[in-house]
Amino acid sequence: MLSLGEDAERLYLWKPAGIPVFPPHADPEGDCLLARMLAEWPSRAGGWPAGFEGGIAHRLDTATSGLVVAARTHEGLAPFRAAFGTGALRKFYLFRSDAAESPAGPPFHEQVRSEPIAHHPSRKDRMVTRRGPRTTHRGKWYDAWTRFTDRGGGWWEAEIRTGVMHQIRVHAAAAGIPLTGDALYGGAPGHFVLHHTCMIGSGWASPVAPLPDDLPADLPAPPQGGPDVLVRP
Fold first, then answer.
1. Model confidence over 161-208: pLDDT tens digits?
2. What does each C-alpha distance from 70 to 9, 34, 144, 165 come to in angstroms?
3. Residue 130 — φ and ψ, nearest 5°?
4. Distance in angstroms (rounded) separating the CA atoms of residues 98 and 219
């Protein structure tokens, strides 16, 4: 399943976990969402700016599954990209954290984290949150906003309106609910699940991307429901 549907301005695609959105630098011919997209719609191969080939307007980490949105037209890409920069898009994810099931789990149902995020001072694969004025980091601080909601059974929903590298993972760790299987940020051993469920813009909403069908059978059942469950003011 690649297409989740379309509207007058956007294509909605489903990305499995384990492949990148764009070809990796080390393997330009490797499997990725863009290659699968162009195999199905070869007419979308040309005319897009570098970094947005095929009209794909944003990225997900390789390990993340779920919704990816592409502009239908060349003219429609720029305003759609601008919406990402202004915080006008609400992006919803589901993830697993077994920390919530422990006796010392977090005593909250919902929490907003707004600590700025920057690159780790010495590790390229890691980000840090600003814990104070002297937090060591590399480069600039990026504004970040994440709302976590407990969905039960170790499942959590994250809503973000910004888009910083590893934002959900690093904010979840700061909140005491690191993602299961995320050793980089202190998660418990287990199956890693981070899934981009849907995106809400001004006057439009994407389809809800279903979770992968190959999740381990022993995981607690994920929460059910569409945008009426996921979307709040």
1. 988 999 999 999 999 999 999 999 999 999 999 999 999 998 899 999
2. 9, 10, 23, 20
3. -80, 110
4. 11
User: Which helix (H) or strand (E) is 89 found in, with range?
Assistant: none
pLDDT in tens, 9-20: 999 999 999 999
Which domains, and CATH codes, for the chain? 1-86 (3.30.2350.10), 90-202 (3.30.2350.10)
Q: Which two tokens stand for residue 214?
A: 């190959």
The separation between the first and the last C-alpha atoms of the chain, rounded to the nearest angstrom, is 31
Rounded to 5°, the CA angle 12-15-20 comes to 125
The answer to whether residues 55 and 48 touch, using CB atoms and an 8 Å cutoff, is yes
Q: Which two tokens stand for residue 207?
A: 């389809």
Provide the residue type at 206 as one letter.
Answer: S
Question: pLDDT tens, 55-104?
Answer: 999 999 999 999 999 999 999 999 888 888 888 899 999 999 988 666 66
